[in-house]
C-alpha cells in the first residue's frame, strides 16, 4: 500500500451523529475482531507474530506495528492525518514494517481488551491517536516487551510515552492573520471539550490577534464532540450571527468552513487543507504532515534496537500550511516574519504579564510559558469567552 492509496476526502457513514457517540458504541465489534470477521484493516501479513528477523544485536529485520484510531481513517480530519502518517511510515520502511490499524475505537473496557489482544498478537509497537489513559496504560504495564506511543498521552514509563503538537504557536499565527484580515478582530472558535488543546487554540488565537489589534476577542462554542456536522452547523450559525469576522475550529469535517464561505467570513481549519470547502475565504490550517516523520522514526528505532521512551511529552513542531488563494501577500509576509521570531525564541506566545479570563494573574511580567507548560495549560486568557 502506498501513500497514494488513501481514500479520497469524504464524510464517513456516521456523519449525522456525534462522533463520540459512535465511538462509544464501537466496542461491540471487538468480539468479531478476534473471532471471525476482522475489523483490522491490515496493510501487511499478520502471520508472523514475532516480527523479529533475528539480527542478533538487539535490533530486528522486520517489525509489526499497529495503529488504534479514535475515528475512521477517512474522517476529513484528525484520524485521516494520522492514517497518512502510518502510510508514510510504511512507504519509507517498506517490507521492514508490517503495519495495520483499527478504526473507530472509543472509551470502554473493550478498548483495554483490544490493546491486550494487539500485544498478545506480537505487535512490537502500538500507536494510539488519542489519549486512552488507563485503558491503555494498564495493558502497557502488563506487557513491558511491547512499546506504546499515545497521542496526547500523559503516562511515561519504560515502554509508554505521550506525544502531541506544539500548536499554541500555530494558533498565534492564525490569530495574527485573522486580525490583519478583519476590521474588528472578532474571532469565533468551535471546540469540542475544555482541554489543553482548546485552551492553546483560543489563547494562541487571542494573543496572536492582540499583537495586531489590542481589542481583538475570541468567542467560543464547545459542542462536546469532534464530529457532528449538525452541531458544528449550529455553532457556526450562532457565531456568525454574533458578527465574528474569522471562524476557526477543531472539527473533523468541513461544515463550519462552508458556512463561513457562504457568509463571506474568513475561516481556517485545524487538521488538514480545507481550501476546497472555502475557496475564497480560506486562510490556512495546521500542517500535520510531521506525523509521518514521527511514526517512521519510532518504527525505525524499534528496528534498530534503540527505541527508548522519553520522560516527558514529545511535542512536534506544527507550522502553518498553505495560504488560501485570497490571503493578501502582505498578510502572509507579516505572519511569516512572526513565525521566524517564534522559532528563534525572540517572540513567545505566553509572556507575562498575563491574566486569565477570570481576572487571575497567571504569568507575572518577565515570565514565559514554554510548549511543555502549554501542554498542561488549564485556563483561557482574558479576552476569550465561552471556555
Describe it for me?
This protein has helices spanning 19-24, 30-33, 78-93, 109-120, 134-142, 168-181, 196-210, 229-241, 255-263, 290-304, 329-344, 371-375, and strands at 41-42, 63-68, 97-102, 125-128, 147-151, 160-166, 186-191, 217-222, 246-249, 266-269, 282-285, 314-317, 350-351, 354-355, 361-363, 368-369, 384-385. With 387 residues, the protein is of the alpha/beta class. It has two domains: 3-166 and 289-312, Rossmann fold (3-Layer(aba) Sandwich), CATH 3.40.50.2300; 168-285 and 319-385, Rossmann fold, CATH 3.40.50.2300. The strands form four sheets. It has a seven-stranded mixed beta sheet, with helices on both faces. The protein is globular and about 60 Å long. Mean pLDDT is 88; it is low at 1-57.
Properties at a glance:
Rossmann fold; globular; single chain; seven-stranded mixed sheet; 387 residues; alpha/beta; six-stranded parallel sheet; 2 domains; 12 helices; 35% helix
Count of discrete structural domains: 2
What portion of the residues fall into strands of 2 or more residues?
A: 15-25%
What does the largest sheet look like? 7 strands, mixed
CATH architecture grouping of the largest domain:
3-Layer(aba) Sandwich
Query: Which superfamily, in CATH terms, is the homologous superfamily of the largest domain?
Result: Response regulator
Amino acid at each position: 500500500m502506498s501513500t497514494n492509496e488513501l481514500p479520497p476526502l469524504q464524510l464517513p457513514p456516521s456523519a449525522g451523529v456525534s462522533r463520540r457517540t459512535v465511538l462509544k458504541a464501537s466496542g461491540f465489534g471487538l468480539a468479531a475482531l478476534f473471532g471471525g470477521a476482522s475489523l483490522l484493516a491490515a496493510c501487511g501479513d499478520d502471520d508472523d507474530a514475532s516480527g523479529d528477523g533475528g539480527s542478533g544485536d538487539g535490533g530486528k529485520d522486520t517489525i509489526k506495528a499497529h495503529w488504534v484510531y479514535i475515528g475512521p481513517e477517512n474522517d476529513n480530519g484528525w484520524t485521516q492525518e494520522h492514517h497518512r502518517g502510518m502510510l508514510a511510515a510504511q512507504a519509507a520502511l517498506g517490507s521492514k514494517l508490517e503495519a495495520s490499524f483499527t478504526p473507530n475505537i472509543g472509551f470502554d473496557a473493550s478498548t483495554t481488551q483490544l490493546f491486550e489482544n494487539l500485544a498478545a498478537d506480537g505487535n512490537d509497537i502500538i500507536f494510539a491517536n488519542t489519549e486512552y489513559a488507563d485503558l491503555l496504560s494498564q495493558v502497557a504495564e502488563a506487557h513491558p516487551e511491547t512499546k506504546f506511543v499515545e497521542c496526547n498521552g500523559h503516562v511515561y514509563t519504560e515502554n509508554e510515552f505521550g506525544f502531541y503538537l506544539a500548536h499554541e504557536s500555530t494558533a498565534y499565527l492564525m490569530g495574527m492573520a485573522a486580525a490583519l484580515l478583519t476590521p474588528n478582530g472578532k474571532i469565533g472558535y468551535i471546540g469540542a471539550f475544555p482541554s489543553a488543546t482548546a485552551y492553546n487554540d483560543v489563547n494562541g488565537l487571542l494573543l496572536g490577534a492582540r499583537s495586531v489589534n489590542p481589542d481583538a476577542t475570541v468567542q467560543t462554542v464547545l459542542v462536546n464532540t469532534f464530529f457532528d456536522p449538525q452541531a458544528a452547523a449550529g455553532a457556526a450559525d450562532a457565531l456568525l450571527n454574533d458578527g465574528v469576522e474569522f471562524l476557526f475550529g477543531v472539527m473533523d469535517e468541513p461544515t463550519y468552513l462552508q458556512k463561513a464561505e457562504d457568509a463571506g467570513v474568513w475561516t481556517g481549519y485545524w487538521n488538514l487543507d480545507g481550501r476546497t470547502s472555502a475557496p475564497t475565504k480560506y486562510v490556512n490550517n495546521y500542517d500535520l504532515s510531521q506525523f509521518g516523520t514521527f511514526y517512521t522514526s519510532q518504527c525505525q528505532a524499534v528496528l534498530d534496537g534503540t527505541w527508548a521512551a522519553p520522560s516527558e511529552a514529545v511535542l512536534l513542531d506544527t507550522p502553518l500550511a498553505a495560504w488560501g488563494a485570497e490571503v493578501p501577500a502582505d498578510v502572509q509576509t507579516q505572519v511569516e516574519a512572526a513565525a521566524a521570531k517564534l522559532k528563534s525564541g525572540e517572540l513567545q506566545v505566553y509572556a507575562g504579564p498575563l491574566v486569565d479570563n477570570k481576572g487571575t494573574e497567571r504569568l507575572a511580567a518577565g515570565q514565559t510559558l514554554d510548549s511543555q507548560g502549554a501542554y498542561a495549560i488549564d485556563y483561557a486568557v482574558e479576552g476569550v469567552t465561552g471556555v
